[in-house]
Write a structure and sequence with these properties.
The longest helix is centred in the N-terminal third of the chain and has 10 residues. The chain has a 22-stranded antiparallel beta barrel. Strands 3-9-10-7-8 form a 5-stranded mixed β-sheet. Helices cover 4% and strands 53% of the residues. The protein is mainly β.
Length: 781
Amino acid sequence: MNFRTPTRRTPKFAKLALLLCTTAAFPFAAHAQDTGDEDEDMAEEAAPAQRTGSLGSINTIVVTGTKTQNPEDVQDVPLAVTAFNADSLEALKVRDVQGLTYSAPNVSLDQIGTSRGTANFSIRGLGINSSIPSIDPTVGVFVDGVYLGFNGGVVFDLFDLESVEILRGPQGILFGRNTTGGAVLINTGNPTEDFRGKFRAAVDGPIDSGRGGANYTASGVISGPIVEDVLLFKIGAYYNNDEGYFRNLFDGSNHGAAETKILRGALEARLGDLTVTGKLDYFTSEGDGPSGQNRGLFERDTFDISIDEPGNYDNEIWTGSLTAELDIGPGTLTNIFGYRKYSATTLGDIDSLPFFGFHSSTETEQEQISNEIRYAVSTDSFDLTVGGFYFDQSIDYTEIRDLPPLSPLTFYGGGSQDHQVLGVFAAGQIYLTDRFSVIAGIRWSREEKDAGVTYVRPRPMCSVVEGTCPTSGTNPFIPTENNGFTDDNSWENWSPKLGVQYEFDNGQIYGHWTRGYRSGGYNFRITNATVFENVVVPATNGNFGFDEERVDNYEIGGKFQTADGTFTLNTAVYLTKIDNMQREVNQSSPTAGVSQFILNTADAEIFGIEAEGRVQLSDSLIFTANIGIIDDSYNEVRFDISGDGVIDDADLDLRLPRVPEVTWGVGFIHELLLDRGAILSRVNYQYRDEFAYTDNNFGWIQDASILDANITWETPMDGLAISIYGRNLLDQVQAGGDTQLPFGGPLSNGVNRPFDAYPAGGTLSPLAKGRNIGAELTFEF
């Protein structure tokens, strides 16, 4: 086996990044505590009903992600975080987490596209490009404090949100569970002390000719006391009917249709020093399969699709949480119990062509329970949080492939896995002086996985979910191969954090080192059985699974705000070192259509810089801007990533997947007071550079310039508002992936090379919506 340790390349954007960080101090390049911070701040001073006047000075934004005893001002925490409250999310017209992708630097909250609702999140270049349910995410998603155990069902419709917080960088101390890239905290609305309600109806859709139909949404929430100051309630319902944005050129039908229903309830009991909040959420959604474009046939800057199989998906999710908070002595004891049950089926046209080349269906079942208990104390001299975490989930997955051009037989396979996590953690901050403090934390974690995998190969009909797929014995259609395997493994580690913070009158500077781990695991989508049958194959070293990945992050940041709050600038510079990097090596396969190895391929590092700022130019106008720059490089490669048969400079020179070199954006929000109400206008532009999607760089995602805008008239009628909004107004083509296939349209130049316009054999590239315009009516009381 060949090993190569090169001299690390000098980050070619380092000087430019430092220059842009400096220029960010000027009003034009001031940042956005996200497009949302400005909105949030402004919105927090507004009552739930009607806006009462000018924007005024920017108010405090609080975050819960530090898990201290009390929520903290986002400008005070020594952490790169972007937060949105309910009103800012409303101003952004956020309908799912993916809607925040173009709101912060170095953040991509996309979905994979092949399986609707499956997250494909990446923060600061750490992400995955897989819909395989056994692959742990690098970006942890937490709903009301409950960790979502895998990526399925994450990027679906949201409503009645209290806040969303995006924490950048490893968060393994307080959150654990493989949050090496960052964490997304979604907090749904809590019951209220006073009786209130909110109803919303919206319609939007394409305005460009030759595209699909309308998208209708309606929701309602009612909240208030059952027993005053003792027992509170909230109930809500959501309905969405999307007629399909795309026009399928195969038969002229609309494609991308979906129907989604959500029912939600919450109760809060206040029993002296004890507060107990229970929430229950039922979600169901069904519709078309992926709107896949084959980029060996169609140009990347079009929305053209032509597929003979419209496909389908059907998801049902139950989610519940029970949170208890008890004031004990100088601190607060918090216990969060969570439950989730996920069931889904899919059918997709993987070849993305107008003939039957490669169709695939899946069925997935997941069930999890978790419990976190922690005690937090905050005093004038220190903050301390200690706690423990338990998590248990089971996943069952079946995949079926039909590839008539390659095989007359049907492929069956998949896997089952039991997964347990046990962790204990402690995090604190000691204030040595009024201005200087030391930050420290540590987490011990142990993960165990017990898996059974059936190779995705031609075989008699079977279902892993129903327990009829074999994991032992010999494949009757391929006597030289086994059916699969069973295996188990465990990983145990310590994740430390150490840093300092210095605060001054109008800001702070901080620096810290954080280590995080992403546990090893197993691949449910194995199409090349010989890799696991021959112990001398260097790709796996004879192991059935892959090993854990270690991430070390070194970060220096600063947060600055004028005394009157009219100018804010937050910056961070970081270096992330990834050892034993887990990668999904995605290649076309002449026998199985697509082959996806999960391997520890390399060591790498990512250097990055971020700046976010805002400036209030007047009582009625706020300007925002943000920028993120990343330089990535491999330090050592252990696998032939390029696919040319050797490990050499060709591998080392490849770009890391999911790492756009530049993201930047600007925006403004303006309020115009009228004799009859007020008009609130918001415009935001965000650019994201092109990036490689596959490790060999044959698959890639083009750059995108996203322009969103909305105008809201807050009418003289108390609580009634009417909005007109537009998303992706520049009509940019975005895809959830760029997976290579062994068949497709013509080549532009006869060769397959990195970032080729027409990849050899074509691709599966599920498209996201282009330009759409909508109107919304909301009423609050």
